[in-house]
Amino acid sequence: MRQAAVEAAQSGARLDRFLADALPDLSRSRLQQLIAQGAVTRLGLTIGDANERVKPEDIYEVRVPPPVPAAPAGQDIPLNVVHEDDDLIVIDKPAGLVVHPAAGNPDGTLVNALIAHCGGSLLGIGGEVRPGIVHRLDKDTSGLIVAAKNDRAMHSLAKQFAHRTIERVYDAVAWGSPRAGEGVVEGDIGRNPFDRKRMAVLRGGGKPARTRYRMQERYGNPERPFASLIECRLETGRTHQIRVHLAHIGHPLIGDSVYGRARNVPRAKTVAEAEAFSAAADFPRQALHARVLGFKHPTSQKQMRFEAPWPADFAGLVASLRALQAR
């Protein structure tokens, strides 16, 4: 724990600037991160505003977490291996498993599990923090992910992702239902200017993003479905792309605590819809599953395609919606 006391001459300074002067071994950007993470307190109260103006005799405490090792360590975490050879490994990732170490998740990740499973040779592939990782799935998204086991495979898979020749199909359960049976959502995605922890469709400054969707099932009144099962195909791979695009068109994913705000959820007008809302409202994560992954093998050049069944929680959600629909 580090402490910094405000002197009279420093009165009125921004908190982040004051701390940067008081603790010169910490950069201002690092201090802003610590403030955002709730690591700065005054009189026992957490201070989350870097723009707070400091006052004489105030004492701030800064909790600096220990440094994270540059190279992740292997950890014995069970993996559902769908395919493995000398070049790559395909995993059916469970919801709740973070892909690689980052702030707030220094270990217990898919990378830690892969290092333990594949051996230390994986550490030199594609960078120290994310060895072998070519693409990501959100922590609470389940389904298929491929990791490279050597530089040649890493380069080949990264090239296929860049050229958009990878087949990626997701199943999503969303609130409401798009009127069209199928369609394309296009909208540049970037950081939300009002909340940097969220992504958003932007008019300028984002990266091009394109999601193709096809309706599979609708639940509720045919004229106004309360929920739907949607197949989504990624034509680009932006952060939170499907979640952002479906929310953008007014149909956020069931269980999505970041993009599924209540104002986007249809209000129940029948008993059946009320029961369905109750069943879906308790779903603990975004209802998104990476069901299909297809690519060309880096060595054999053979086209490979894998399909992962729905996990129990996703299957249970769909079953409850189908049962309610049948009443």
Task: Briefly summarize what is shown.
This protein is of the alpha+beta class and 327 residues long. Helix content is 22%, strand content 28%.
Question: Can you describe what's shown?
Answer:
It is built from 7 helices and 15 strands. The protein has 327 residues and is of the alpha+beta class. The chain folds into 3 domains: 2-62, RNA-binding S4 domain (Structural Genomics Hypothetical 15.5 Kd Protein In mrcA-pckA Intergenic Region, Chain A, Roll); 70-163, Pseudouridine synthase, CATH 3.30.2350.10; 164-327, Pseudouridine synthase (2-Layer Sandwich). Strands 5, 6, 7, 8, 9, 12, 13, 14 and 15 form a 9-stranded mixed β-sheet that branches. Strand 2 (40-42) and strand 3 form a beta hairpin. Helix 1 (15-22) crosses helix 2 (28-36). The model has no long low-confidence stretch (mean pLDDT 90).
**Could you list the spans in which at least 5 consecutive residues all have pLDDT below 50?**
none
Per CATH, the class of the largest domain reads: Alpha Beta
State the helicity in percent bands.
Answer: 10-25%
Number of helices: 7
Residue-averaged pLDDT: 90
Rg estimate, integer Å: 23 Å
Element order: H for helix, E for strand: EHHEEEEEHEHEEEEEEHHEEH
Topology:
Blueprint: E1 2-5, H1 15-22, H2 28-36, E2 40-42, E3 45-46, E4 59-62, E5 81-84, E6 88-93, H3 110-118, E7 142-148, H4 151-162, E8 167-175, E9 182-186, E10 189-192, E11 195-201, E12 210-221, E13 224-234, H5 241-248, H6 271-281, E14 288-296, E15 303-307, H7 312-325
Parallel strand pairs: 7-14
Antiparallel strand pairs: 1-4, 2-3, 2-4, 5-6, 6-7, 8-13, 8-14, 9-12, 10-11, 12-13, 14-15
